[in-house]
């Protein structure tokens, strides 16, 4: 390996250089060996015990067990008292060990994967394990190979220095990403030689930002070459479409960006757990009260004797304990005796139950997405019950409520709007079908006719959806994507953004006519068409085809990038003629000024297809000998382009625009970093030189590409981006009325698109000189090489280029609403859940989607607050709040509950939200928002989303859920009580940060209303039951103290007491917590109002806890005094008295659980009956063999003797009946009340529309 040296203590950057004089590996940085395990063989026992002692309950029981070793206060045999806590901690330790062993196996598998490292000794690349890779090593990677560390790309077999990555293992995105060789290394004609690499590399310290990386390389001549994230190959990604890539390791092992993002599932405390901790302290208070009573009672009992009783033994000095000290010792003894009041096995039981609940949720077939082959993922194992208590939902819009499948719908060019009604009709009736091989074979006969206006109703593409070949996938801890292997091929992945609905675009007949006019009439400089209009239409579609980062790939496996345009037949129009046309267009546009072209049609207008065909009949005929009209249709005899390629885009918007350009015969044919080739409607290929590409970012909200026109040699900047920024970057029209008119009309069209729920993009261009571009390029190169203020300098250069633009037009893209979203939102509303939408989209678009998905109703009164002034904002909030309150007061005093009152919606933009959050107006805002049916926060930043969620959760003290699908939703997801990620088209970053991951928004309905309700009801009842059975059982010992002089003795054998909670009564609540269903799934889905039971915490709250504790006291009194009265004045010994008490208490506690069960399965019967059988079997065996195990009193043959006595059976029959009578009556009453409530809700729900009519 090559040595890397540097300063690890510098916190801002690291520096290293290759050392060709030695072959020692780098010792200054971490190795590439990863270790995600928590323990080793030597550290497991002490470290695991230390972690388990972080739980208050474990500390409590350890202290009690140790206290029992003190002779003065011990209540049991010291060794016996250790058994319960040892069993519980051992079970937890076994679980932790198993989980850690799985991590160890996975680490070992990854560390022993192989790659090729350059060896100075062998002068060649040799195979080594990943764990042996060091910073500074040169690594050779091949196609379909997984990257072992973060590597700076220095060589690629691609002639343009490009390497393609699939980042699915890292962020789940299936589309390919481009990485470039560091500037200065891309023009190598020969293979890279590590021997001659003598540069010093300076880069930033390791961090977890996957999207940013900066540094520079200093050559021996002190020249600096900057590099960024586009030059870095990240660990865990896979090389695609590149034969060989070579780079130097920058970060290794736990310093790689992937590992720094490996935080694992986050631990959250559920609401029930927080409530449970409060109740445990209440139980501790109850325990101390009972112990205080025992100590006082012991003092009174001891003081009642005139002289010391025989059993009161003095110490070696003949002194007796004082009543106070004796009472204190008895207080400690009582704590040991009654310690079981705190349920020791509760925490372990809860963990086991939640594992069972997660298993059932994960295997619910209704939550499985067959199309994506994705089941629900439960990443957080400890908050399943919170799903049943949600009060507020915060949702993203794009990709969450919508498909994130971008479909081209409308466009406006040069101030003329084109409605694409034919395409709209296609989308209304569109149904995606899984085409079999024979279907594709049938489609192969269809090709796009050149210049033919009569296309099929849907522009059917002939390419087949392609799948990318993959290497055997390695499973990476923390940055893998777990997928169930269903009907999809596990070795293949779908091409991103290539569904039929996205690819097929039906052209607008009017726009198609304009395009053909621009293509054909310009040759003769027809006086019937303006030159600026012609160039606008051409430039508009060229911008759609060029201004992107779409990769053109072949259909072969593995797919290779198309870098050379495929051969086509000679077209009717030669390249020389095209060149003359563009030159003449350029001269005319410079020398002439034109009046406004014909006015645009009204929005939504459509021309008759028949008339269109008549107008365009002659346009399909060319005026040269090579192509003429030979039929009534008219077609130009041009060569057809091969269709054996596909487009791979980084975003669905880019793919939609490229497919739209292709529908109008502006076809993207090939792309390299230096050139892009587009096929024009005439069939001619134009290859543009790409001079620079400014990628899209969330700050600029636009992207630009700088090209050199192959014919006019002009430097052209094509820009696309959000209208809010592009409109401000346009050149001042001055006195030119035409440009001002185009801008105003385009803005009107954009507003209409937004109201129609479409995503809008503006398209613009700028023509510059060669000198200006060279000056800008030098400035840009300096900014890229900078270390300090690099981001600011890059932003400044981008702003310098993207100014004084000329508007070409705009597009409207539809993000289709997901299936089932309106029904899901309606059901969640009926369940009493408030739904907010936090989106970065335009206000008009968000409002339209809100109406479409029933978040807002047409009858709602919607208040919109947009302001940049604090005083105005405060005034608007007060006025709106006053108006809403008036309506609520009128509704409350009206007394007519059949007619619903007015509903309100609140729409607010990001700037206003910023004023509210920074100006101290949060309380006013929340007060207003609570009274509104829905709240939409538009143009929100990721930080604002997170702040809003935290504000609502903390100020209103409600249970919140956030759901999103993109990286911009991560902070919002993590801020909520429950975070849900949607594994959609924006990658897996939201999923990786979430507690649960689903593939469709509609799955939220069953996840909350059914599984959420079940999980909450099961766990709440189980926790209450644990407190009940422990208090009930411990009170038996407490009542006995009144008959034994508060001496701390027991009437039940120690082993019986220990096994009572550990084994005899532990299984029924576990089965109950996993399998019980108080209401069927069908009822819960049909009556969402039942979800409010969990929202209001009706099952587990302070009142139910107190009632349960009183019931436990009552049942313990019955279980103690019924046997006491039955055996009163008899001569039975203490264990013969305690055995029937122990038996009837077990039967009572088991039957109490049976009363709580609403569902009976085979598992329920086995655990209920099995618990009694286990108890009787153990008692019979133990009493038979325990001859002298606890002298002077032994339980020998007690159970065998009492089972032969009728009185014992009578006690076992009567006592549970008396003890459970109140509980049975309460259960019956609640069941009848629930049936009536369900009937009432159903009646109101289905009769409400009738009453309103």
Explain how this protein is built:
Residues 991-1228 form the P-type ATPase C-terminal domain. Residues 27-80 form the P-type ATPase N-terminal domain. InterPro entries: ATPase_P-typ_cyto_dom_N, ATPase_P-typ_P_site, ATPase_P-typ_TM_dom_sf, ATPase_P-typ_transduc_dom_A_sf, HAD-like_sf, HAD_sf, P-type_ATPase_IV, P-type_ATPase_N. The protein has 1253 residues and is α+β, with helices and mostly antiparallel strands. The chain has 5 domains: 25-111, no CATH class; 114-261, Calcium-transporting ATPase, cytoplasmic transduction domain A (Distorted Sandwich), CATH 2.70.150; 346-360 and 1010-1239, no CATH class; 376-401 and 818-888 and 903-999, Rossmann fold, CATH 3.40.50.1000; 501-522 and 532-556 and 643-814, 3-Layer(aba) Sandwich (Calcium-transporting ATPase, cytoplasmic domain N), CATH 3.40.1110.10. Helices cover 43% and strands 15% of the residues. It has a 9-stranded mixed sheet with strand order 14-35-34-33-15-29-32-31-30, sandwiched between helices. α35 (1102-1126) packs antiparallel against α39 (1206-1252). Mean pLDDT is 78; it is low at 1-11, 19-25, 431-493, 522-531, 568-573, 585-642, 894-900 and 1247-1253.
Describe the SSE topology:
Elements: E1 13-17, H1 44-52, H2 56-67, H3 78-81, H4 83-111, E2 114-119, E3 124-129, E4 138-142, E5 150-156, E6 162-166, H5 168-171, E7 176-180, E8 200-204, E9 214-218, E10 224-228, E11 232-233, E12 238-240, E13 244-251, H6 257-260, H7 271-303, H8 323-337, H9 346-362, E14 377-378, E15 392-395, E16 402-413, E17 416-418, H10 421-429, H11 437-443, E18 467-469, E19 492-494, H12 500-503, H13 509-520, H14 531-546, E20 551-554, H15 575-591, H16 609-616, E21 645-648, H17 652-663, E22 667-671, E23 675-679, E24 685-694, E25 702-708, E26 715-721, H18 723-726, H19 737-755, E27 758-768, H20 770-785, H21 790-801, E28 806-817, H22 821-830, E29 834-838, H23 843-852, E30 861-865, H24 870-894, E31 904-909, H25 910-918, H26 922-930, E32 934-938, H27 942-955, E33 960-964, H28 970-975, E34 978-982, H29 989-992, E35 996-998, H30 1003-1041, H31 1054-1064, H32 1067-1075, H33 1081-1086, H34 1092-1095, H35 1102-1126, H36 1134-1156, H37 1162-1185, H38 1198-1202, H39 1206-1252
Parallel strand pairs: 15-29, 15-33, 29-32, 30-31, 31-32, 33-34, 34-35
Antiparallel strand pairs: 1-8, 2-3, 2-4, 4-13, 5-11, 5-13, 6-7, 6-12, 8-9, 9-10, 14-35, 16-17, 16-28, 18-19, 20-21, 22-23, 23-24, 24-25, 25-26, 26-27, 27-28
Helix pairs in contact: 1-4, 7-8, 7-30, 9-30, 9-32, 13-14, 13-16, 14-17, 19-23, 20-21, 22-30, 24-26, 30-32, 30-35, 30-36, 31-37, 32-37, 35-36, 35-39, 36-39
